[in-house]
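An instance as discussed:

___
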Amino acid sequence: MKKWIKIGIIILGIFLLLFIGINIFIRSFLSGERLKAMILPRAEALTGRKVNLEEIHVSLFKGVVAKGLSVKETDGQRDFLKMKEFVLSYRLLPLLQKQLVISKIEMISPSVTVLKDRHGKYNFSSITERASQAPPKPSEPGGRGLPLSIVTDRIFIQNVQFKFVDEEKTMPDVSAAFDMEFTGSIEQDGTPRMKSGQISVKEIKVVLKGAEIRTTGKIDMDDRAIRANLKTVIGKDSIDLTATVKDYLKSPEVTANLHAKELDLEKLMGLGGEGKTPQEAVSKEPGDKKGKVSKQAEGGMDQKLKASGQVKVDVAKYQDYTIKNLSVNYQYVQGVVKVEPLGLQFSGGEVYNTEGNLNGKIQFAGARIQETLKGDADLKLGKGIIKGSQIFDAISSLTGIQALKNPNVDQGAFHFDIKEEKVFLEGFISSTLFKFSPKGYMGLDQKLDIPAELKISPELSKSLSRELTQMKFMTDDQGWMVLPLKIKGTTGKPSVTIDTEGMVKRIVPDLTREIEKRLFQRKKPSK
């Protein structure tokens, strides 16, 4: 028994001596000063910036631990990048052969501040320019560098802080905080091989036109797909996004669904309105070859990218309208966007206070929306009142009928056909006193060309202006007077006149039939 105890003590002593020896070897071979001397000059030569490292040491079990790493701005005072702690876990046996094989990377509290100055230059521009202009430096024979192989099983990045500030204010300020974890490897040639990854988005905050847009959620990924579940809050509105991106490295195929219980569409559209346009860079090359290459590259990605999904909003507000059950199915293939079906119900409105529903479909090419826009839609209207309409103001002024200035409407229906950069429309709105039936088009350039027919009841025809009563308009079978109108001008400044050509077209056939009737009518036999 004592013999086995002695053997155990001897073996334990051997392991203890081996551990102490390896620890001494590691600390002497990878001392903090040696690592600093190896890392800092290379980092400063690569970035052209002052690089600080408060502390670096080697632990047998934890690995290489660097603390207080920072890369300064060009002024040498402010931080461009800083990191609380950076840990490289290595494998022990390759180290004995003077090879540093990294198995795990941990980054704790890294933060990056990206600044775009008033001249449109980014604070990292000098680093990227330096890296692109510097010729490759041949390795010196007998150099002191260690053979390096990164075969990381895991990469942990905790408490990432990112900040973007645009002094020109052409782009919104952005701040972000998130954690990341990846499993995979990085080959010796720098090629990443990811097996899986997870990004926990603590918060992404975008300040756009004074409004804060906050996004939180989680993103999971592997070598085949990316899956995201995100929530974006804009003021009191909340938008949920679920998305999957397949084959994201070669031919991305995106499925993204949006849902919101309540949404202020007018506020949302205001955030995307026109702002200051950054100055365009002038190419020194003839023919702007760089621009052509970028367009071709973008076009190539457009051809590869596929996207589809659904947008649903329970209740939305737009101006004075309340929109319910907004449902949009969309598809993006080879640069073309298709929306089918599009459906919604609405009520309210300032100019036309009514309720109704809209159903339709549209299609356009993303690069040339106005030229390629086409589709159709059907609109049904219920009871309501028209107030402050420039067209009905003009109709009231033309006819002298004040009741047509802000008329009550019982029902209406319209069909829209969008093609050739025009919106062709046909339909009617009516009440017990009038029926208005336009059939023409509105150009996407806001020009109007809409012949219309206005029927007014015998009661309203009594209020017709003296000038128009002398024109002897046709009447229908129910005694309603029929006024052919022509709407021209623009949507901002429409004009309404009597369509005399339309009157002739209507009167001549009716007059011909009346003459034929009288000429060929048989006389009744006398008694």
Observations:
- The chain has eleven helices and 25 strands.
- Residues 356-520 form one domain.
- The CA atoms of residues 103 and 152 lie 4 Å apart.
- Confidence is low (pLDDT under 50) at residues 10-22, 275-298.
